[in-house]
Design brief:
Chain lengths: ~270, ~170
């Protein structure tokens, strides 16, 4: 083994050890992207964007070749769904008028969020099993900052910007267990905290629901509003429920509203009035 | 073409290969799972390069790529920075000192790198009490197994690149 530990090997090992300690320490003490990460992200941005563009084109071509019938059927289904939603929208307009009337009657100030969006494409995904995050094609130069909420084109919550460089940003998705979002059930008003989970089927978990909470399948769960998340953004739908480990509260499993598997573009809420 | 130029070309191609691995891992396969697990390609690629080029050069290459990998924001980066060069150097040394340079030692080296790097990330999360899936150990084994299947591809790729630096084209 003498040959293995040559002077060069010792130098590489020492450099590796020093760098590993440096990365670990910087990772712990720094908040957001470090200078090294910003430079690396900047260098990688065009490659990631190109790779993502190629993947999108290949997927579109594949869909056209092999999923034409399925897409046609899906198109029909969506047309039907649009018709249903238009009908629902008419009902909503009626409820809105009623709401306006009641709000005015109670003298409450109308809660009217005013969103400003920034759009970006997803260029890459975290390759680890233990984290769910994606890199997007725009960063601080496009006005994207850490802490911004990311949603789909339909207003479904995707996650939050946790790191931002000049031309890229990292969005940690709601599926990541580190994410905790204050939420409520739209129909009944019960509140809890929605967290990511490692479930194979990609579900979320709503914790800290009161024991008396009545939970129904397909009930919508929305944000309650906080520093990072505007109010009433759709998080998901209840798919299962039960008593939590302590026995003093309930939890609900949620199917995320946003389809993160096929996510191509996200919208960042740059500004809103709560 | 002088030997110096050939060496430059070879290491440029290895670096381009690393970029390909990085983009494959994040942009192409980053959002895809195989039986619930994602592939870990960098340890396999680094092991193949070390088996081709020997433990010193392979170790240095692994150190540089692991540092770039960590800087690109990959989780477990610090663990990779130390263990990837170590594993690659051991794999490269065993290949050049004890066995013939072929696919099987590269598979062994890849296995060593995967177990060291991904295993250490797993153990680190376990000891830090970070949230883990219920079947985390099963996912880890599947990840190692599936990633190992890519060794022939990277062994072939690094073989083609290594020929660029061989004046006799052997």
């Amino acid at each position: 083994m003498k040959k293995f530990f040559s002077g060069r090997v010792k130098m590489i090992l020492a450099a590796a050890m020093s760098l590993a300690i440096l990365f670990a320490v910087v990772g712990v003490i720094s908040d957001g992207a470090t200078l090294g990460q910003q430079v690396t992200g900047l260098v990688l941005s065009p490659f990631r964007a190109a790779a993502a563009a190629v993947v999108r084109q290949v997927e579109q071509f594949y869909d056209y070749l092999f999923r034409y019938d399925a897409l046609e059927a899906e198109n029909e289904l969506l047309k039907q769904r649009v018709a249903e939603l238009e009908e629902d929208a008419r009902d909503v307009a009626q409820y809105e008028r009623e709401n306006e009337y009641l709000t005015a009657l109670l003298g409450l100030q109308e809660d009217h969020p005013d969103f400003t969006f920034r759009s970006a494409y997803v260029t890459s995904w975290e390759s680890s099993n233990w984290k769910t995050a994606c890199t997007i094609s725009r960063g601080t130069e496009a006005g994207i900052e850490e802490g911004m909420c990311a949603v789909t084109a339909y207003g479904q919550v995707v996650g939050m910007v946790t790191e931002a460089g000049p031309t890229w940003a990292t969005v940690t998705t709601i599926l990541d267990p580190s994410m905790e979002i204050s939420a409520s059930i739209a129909a009944s008003g019960y509140t809890g905290v929605v967290q990511g989970s490692y479930d194979k089927d990609g579900t979320l978990r709503m914790n800290y629901l009161s024991t008396g909470a009545v939970l129904k399948n397909n009930d919508q769960v929305v944000t309650t509003g906080s520093t990072f998340y505007p109010k009433n953004l759709l998080l998901g739908y209840i798919s299962d429920a039960g008593h939590d480990e302590t026995g003093v509260g309930k939890f609900a499993k949620l199917t995320p509203a946003a389809d993160l598997g096929d996510l191509e573009q996200v919208f960042l809420i740059a500004d809103y009035q709560s | 073409m002088t030997q110096r130029q050939r060496n430059f070309l070879r290491w440029s191609l290895y670096s381009a290969g690393f970029l390909l691995v990085l983009l494959l891992s994040t942009s192409v396969l980053g959002n895809r799972t195989f039986c619930g697990t994602k592939l870990s390609l960098l340890p396999v690629y680094a092991a193949c390069v070390a088996c081709r080029e020997g433990h010193e050069q392979g170790g240095l290459f692994a150190l540089i790529t692991a540092a770039f990998w960590a800087l690109s924001g990959a989780s477990g980066g610090a663990v990779f920075v130390f263990l990837l060069p170590l594993g690659s150097m051991v794999a490269g040394y065993i290949t050049s000192a004890y066995v013939t340079r072929s696919l099987m030692p590269a598979v062994g080296g890849s296995l060593l790198n995967l177990v060291l790097c991904e295993g250490a990330v797993y153990v680190q999360r376990l000891f830090l009490g970070s949230p883990m899936p219920v079947d985390a150990s099963r996912l880890l084994l599947l990840q190692i197994g599936f990633s190992l299947l890519t060794t022939p591809l990277f062994w072939w790729l690094t073989g083609k690149i290594a020929k660029a630096g061989d004046p006799h084209g052997t």
